[in-house]
Amino acid sequence: MPKLRLFTPGPAMVPEEVMLAMAYPIDHHRTADFRAMLEEVTKNLQYLMGTEGTCLTVTGSGTAAAEAAIVSCLPPGHKALVCRAGKFGERWGKICDAFGIANTKCELDWGHGFKAEHVAKELDRDADIDTVIVTHSETSTAAVSDVRAIAELTRSRDILLIVDGITAVGAIPVKMDEWGIDVLITGSQKALMLPPGLGFVGVNDRAWKRVDSGEMPSFYNNLKAYRKSIGSFDTPYTPANVMIRGAQVVLHRIKEEGVESIWKRTASYARATREAAPALGMKVFAADPVDSVTALTVPDGVDEPKLRKIMRAKHGMQIAGGQDHVKGKIIRIGHMGYMDQFDALAVIAALELTLIELVHRVEPGAALTAAQRVFAE
Q1: What is the Rg, in whole angstroms, of the alpha carbon atoms belonging to the chain?
Q2: 175 and 76 together in one domain
Q3: Pairing between strand 143-144 and 137-138?
Q4: Strands 160-164, 183-187: pairing kind
Q5: Cis peptide, bond prior to residue 76, ω within 30 of zero
Q6: Angle between the 366-376 and 259-276 helix axes, to the nearest 10 degrees?
Q7: Taking the complete model, does pTM exceed 0.85, yes or no?
Q8: What is the pLDDT of residues 210-254, one digit of tens each?
Q9: Do 172 and 290 contact (CB within 8 A), yes or no?
Q10: Domain of 195?
Q11: Beta bridge pairs of residue 296
């Protein structure tokens, strides 16, 4: 029976020490021990996100964190520009629509990332926009947006910037305070090497002024409630305290290695995969590829669901397919979290073997050699 390795862009593989920490007997969450644990988690989240602002831990997925940020920061009288070039950019627009939040769309073809000029064009067109929502790493297309330049633009125009960093934080460079990001969100099951179940939100003072300027119809995902509790390192509602214990271990591990070192490692895995693509008869899908996940086009004549089925059943490699109109046309390979260079090589070797089995012309070892050259450098 092959060993299962997760190469999906979430959930990612979880270190054994984290799983063991979460296997300890469960404790009550209204205790001094829990508050001390949440305090450590909160301070290490500030390190990870690069902020002195407030960092909140929400029990729920990354979408829960995104909803909390969007709804809390856009009370009546405000309007958002939602940058959409993939599944998750579209989701943030749907949240706005569900809560009756005024919004307009900035759209690009899937596989492209947003630049400051794309956002500036829409801001020039509509003077009512006072908030921009952008996905840093669009998980569905493996494309990256230039958040640093976009943040410089929004700050110069006194516009609030909400960034989906769900497959960015902990994988690629993200510097909340230095760049001028007002709200930054992420989830536990990506680069933070945890199971699904926690969302994290970083909020600066500019964003808190907006949150305090009005009320929205939210209860559980209300940032004001979390801010009130985090003052004493507590939570407003019952937390996933076992997961928070895991987060304590993960964040300590990240800080010990240094987040810059992790960014560098992740970039090397992505580059090795991109260098291997031509030898596999594949192309990198994204015009603006991100380092946290790589999307590769499926060669003509290859059955994409069958490819993924063989990868898992015979080689123990779980990768992801495409979504919506790129379903069946691309595969996605995650580079986040608990990985090393031999994991990155293993998935490429398994792709070679699988494509050979599917009678696709591949020179055995060619893709692997191309990837190894990256690490040899």
Answers
A1: 21
A2: yes
A3: antiparallel
A4: parallel
A5: no
A6: 150
A7: yes
A8: 999 999 889 999 999 999 999 999 999 999 999 999 999 999 999
A9: yes
A10: 16-257
A11: 284, 331
